[in-house]
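Run log // design_07
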């Protein structure tokens, strides 16, 4: 079986590592000639919307998936008539536009932060007058790891953000004083079967995910599963998906969803009976989903810009180092560490000191 992946980053790389024990082969299409997934499969260097390359790619794969939500949805539509593609273009398109995403959540009865559509910078003052400050201005598309977002607390912030926004469509959201951010990783198979991992509690630094902690027996688990189930069914989704929520005193506000394996689910590689990567492959290949039960209390720490000495990491009981094989540079995700926690939610202090 040959699995094609549009995108060749670390998520694609970890999908391939999960599928190799089954003797599957992987092909990746990515504009970057040094995409790290090329270390574990065949890398086709081409633009995501190059139809000639997509045709060749479809002819050499049994099923196609993707690892990055900024892949053009029309490229998936182009492929879908030629090879099985999971998840489908509809799910990808919904996740690519924050305004459409919020509307979908509302249609499904999923609460969100209050928001106002902003067509361009000239419309921003009226939106601020309607919603009030503090607020967060977000471009509707191409947002990733905190990009395309401005925190607005004052009139000066509004003016500065408007200069940067220009004619780009956006939306303005009320700033939420949430207690924590949690995410739910879910899988849905071709047959409609679903499986849900324990909630992950997430902490960000400088707009990027820093740590995710598995929360076994979280009191909001059932509530989150019920909401994500509606989303999976509405999209007729196949594969793994992540939904991020704000916990506001026990009320869940849906923030965004990612139609792919997700950074906050990396703890599942060592920490769950079936990793999110294996379950994504099981789902898109029409295989039974694996158990999502946690093996214990696990956590994940992102490595941004640099990798510590392996000996330092491996000296920590229960720690596992994942180096993505990417060139080191500031602000870039280059690896992660998963670790077993001696107490629920408490990371080893020597890990945090690295």
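design_07 sequence
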């Amino acid at each position: 079986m040959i699995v094609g992946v549009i995108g060749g980053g670390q998520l694609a790389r970890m999908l391939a590592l999960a599928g190799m024990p089954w003797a599957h082969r992987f092909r990746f299409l990515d504009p970057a000639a040094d995409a790290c997934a090329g270390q574990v499969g065949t890398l086709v260097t081409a633009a995501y919307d190059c139809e000639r390359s997509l045709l060749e790619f479809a002819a050499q794969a049994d099923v196609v998936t993707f690892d990055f939500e900024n892949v053009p949805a029309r490229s998936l539509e182009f492929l879908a008539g030629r090879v099985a593609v999971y998840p489908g273009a509809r799910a990808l398109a919904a996740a690519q536009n924050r305004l459409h995403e919020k509307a979908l959540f509302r249609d499904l009865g999923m609460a969100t932060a209050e928001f106002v559509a902003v067509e361009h910078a000239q419309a921003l003052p009226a939106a601020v007058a309607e919603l009030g400050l503090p607020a967060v201005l977000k471009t509707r598309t191409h947002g990733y790891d905190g990009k395309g977002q401005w925190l607005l607390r004052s009139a000066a912030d509004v003016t500065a953000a408007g200069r940067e926004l220009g004619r780009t469509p956006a939306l303005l959201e009320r700033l939420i004083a949430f207690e924590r951010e949690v995410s739910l990783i879910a899988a849905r198979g071709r047959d409609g079967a679903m499986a849900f991992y324990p909630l992950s509690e997430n902490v960000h630094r400088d707009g990027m995910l820093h740590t995710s902690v598995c929360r076994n027996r979280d009191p909001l688990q059932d509530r989150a599963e019920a909401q994500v189930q509606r989303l999976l069914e509405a999209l007729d989704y196949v594969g793994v998906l992540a939904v991020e929520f704000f916990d506001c005193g026990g009320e869940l506000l849906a923030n965004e969803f990612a139609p792919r394996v997700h950074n906050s689910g990396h703890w599942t590689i060592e920490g769950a009976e079936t990793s999110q990567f294996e379950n994504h492959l099981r789902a898109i290949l029409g295989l039974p989903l694996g158990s999502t039960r946690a093996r214990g209390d696990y956590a994940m720490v992102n490595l941004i810009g640099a990798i510590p000495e392996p000996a330092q990491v491996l000296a920590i009981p229960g720690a596992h180092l994942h180096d993505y094989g990417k060139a080191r540079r500031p602000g870039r995700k280059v690896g992660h560490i998963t670790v077993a926690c001696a107490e629920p939610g408490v990371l080893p202090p020597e890990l945090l000191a690295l």
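The longest strand covers residues 239-248.
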